[in-house]
Amino acid sequence: MECKQFTLGRHLLSEFYDCDPNVLNNLSLIDSVMTEAATIAGATIVQKNFHHFSPYGVSGVIVIAESHLAIHTWPEYGYAAVDLFTCGDSVDPVVAYEFMREHLHAKTAFYSELKRGLLNSDSGQLLKAPFQVGQERQNALLEGGIAR
Amino acid sequence: MECKQFTLGRHLLSEFYDCDPNVLNNLSLIDSVMTEAATIAGATIVQKNFHHFSPYGVSGVIVIAESHLAIHTWPEYGYAAVDLFTCGDSVDPVVAYEFMREHLHAKTAFYSELKRGLLNSDSGQLLKAPFQVGQERQNALLEGGIAR
Fold it and tell me: Distance between CA atoms of A131 and A99, rounded to whole angstroms?
């Protein structure tokens, strides 16, 4: 019999490529894009920190009541690594992903949804196991890439 | 010819099971354990935020000069999800993982090291590809678990 599962946390690991470097290096813009992404995804913002690093790049974290969102940018590569970790049903991290993709002007983007804290829905017990990979999405052709 | 690669970011996704629930629900203790883990791993702390949620659980994020560390705890399950995201060679996230495992009193623990922002070390070019899974570690027998 197949074991039904649900999960305490949904963690979208997102990679954004060929983004606008001027956006990626703009502290206040990254702050506002992340904040808006959190809001439209349905998250409740608890606290946020954004920092610009020398010579390039922004790191930012938003603690939300439903876990956290984080971004690290490398403008010199046009690359941003974004984590969208949520728990509960009231927040949809995919909505945040789509908003980020659009507003970072990413020509290529991926996400993998990692299921963290798997529960057996019949027994309610936590399964002691590593995360599992759920849905994955690719928003452009894989260019110069590598097989997974 | 095999393509040599290096990576902009090392992201350890850690799962800690059968932890001490009193530790997981103690805001100041989680703060001090995470802060010490960051320090002994060689990280430079930029800012940190820790919050206790009702009725149980702590969320915390430390922004470090080398990316971020994040924790979310579910004391009722004895479970903590911990992310240790670092860039550069001066910080070793595995050191932070080992420290966390010991101080959360986790009987079972896993990590997977995800390589984010892969570069071709010959050309220096960024490869437009999803993250890759590198080293994985399991620190106890898989009990009641599921195949990956």
Answer: 25
CB count, 10 Å around CB of A80? 26
CB atoms within 10 A of CB B39: 15
Nearest to A61 by CA among A80, A43, A84, A40: A84
Residue A110 identity (one-letter amino acid) = F
Query: Residue A63 is nearest to which of B13, B59, B77, comparing CB atoms?
Result: B59
Q: Scan for tokens 């919050």, then name that residue.
A: B51
Q: How far is C-alpha A117 from the chain's CA centre?
A: 17
Map residue A22 onto helix, strand or coil: helix
Q: Is the bond leading into B130 cis (omega within 30 degrees of zero)? A: no
pLDDT in the model for residue A147: 35
For residues A64 and A69, give the distance between their C-alpha atoms in angstroms, rounded to a whole number. 7
| CB contact at 8 A, A100 and A17 | no
Say whether B67 is catalytic: yes
Please check the confidence at residue A109 and state whether its pLDDT lies above 90. yes
- How far, in Å, are A24, A29, A47, A48, B112 from residue B14 at the CA level? 28, 31, 23, 23, 7
CA distances from A4 to A117, A124, B76, B144, B148 (A): 14, 10, 21, 14, 15
- Point out the catalytic residue in the list B52, B59, B72, B112: B72
pLDDT digits (tens, 9 = 90+) for B73-124: 999 999 999 999 999 889 999 999 999 999 999 999 999 999 999 998 888 8
Contact state of B138 with A131 under an 8 Å Cβ cutoff: no
Express each pLDDT in A11-32 by its tens digit.
999 999 999 999 999 999 999 9
Which pLDDT belongs to residue B143?
Answer: 47
Q: How confident is the model at residue B37 (pLDDT cuts 50, 70, 90)?
A: very high
